[in-house]
Write a structure and sequence with these properties.
The chain has 196 residues and is mainly α. It is built from eight helices and five strands; from the N terminus they run αβαβαααβαβαβα. Strands 3-4-5 form a three-stranded parallel beta sheet, covered by helices on one side. Strand 3, helix 6 and strand 4 form a beta-alpha-beta unit. It is globular.
Length: 196
């Protein structure tokens, strides 16, 4: 629903590179940006010739940091802003604002109805937390989320937990460890979660 995006091609995990290439070849793009730089996209770039651009993943700097705990990164640039390296030929640059996310009016209406039904965020601050992570090494333990949530509720705020199916158990543990105005999210999409 972003007014700046004309089309999105959904790619399923089971799709072969050749199928994806066929979709990409249907349009003669003036620019092709590879924001993953992984084996799959490198294969796609080999099959679909064109004006591909990517960005430096700074693999050496990352490996040195992991191996030696020595930071040799040239600058502290957020990941999302590094993607602009791939788009350098498009004469675009970060605007300094937070990332944009466009929520449909329907998602906002569903979220509002849900919050009203739960009695959350009605005259009180509403805080959404997303405690899950794709990798266990990036996931904060449940007791840390419980302590944080208790402090948030202590300020008078209501708390909503957002996450996917893989985060349900963590969400239940947080709800069980906290007394107050809290609910575990049952959103099935990023848009419905953003509506909250």
């Amino acid at each position: 629903d972003n007014p700046n995006v004309n089309e999105v091609f959904g790619i399923r995990d089971e799709q072969s590179l050749r199928e994806i290439a066929g979709t990409v070849r249907c349009v003669r793009y003036s620019h092709l940006l590879d924001l993953h730089g992984n084996l799959r996209t490198l294969g796609l770039r080999a099959i679909v010739r064109g004006p591909w651009r990517s960005y430096s993943k700074r693999r050496l700097e990352r490996q040195v940091l992991i191996s030696t705990k020595r930071d040799i990164y040239p600058a502290d640039v957020p990941m999302a802003e590094r993607y602009f390296e791939a788009a350098a030929d498009l004469d675009v640059e970060p605007d300094g604002e937070p990332p944009e996310f466009f929520v449909t009016p329907q998602a906002e209406e569903r979220a509002e109805a849900r919050l009203v039904a739960l009695g959350l965020g009605q005259g009180r601050a509403l805080v959404a937390i997303a405690p899950g992570a794709a990798h266990a090494t990036k996931c904060w333990p449940a007791d840390g989320w419980i302590r944080l949530t208790r402090r948030l509720i202590g300020t008078g705020a209501d708390v909503v937990i957002l996450g996917g199916p893989e985060d349900v158990e963590l969400g239940k543990a947080i709800v069980a460890g906290v007394r107050g105005r809290i609910t575990g999210g049952k959103e099935r999409s990023v848009a419905s979660a953003a509506g909250l």
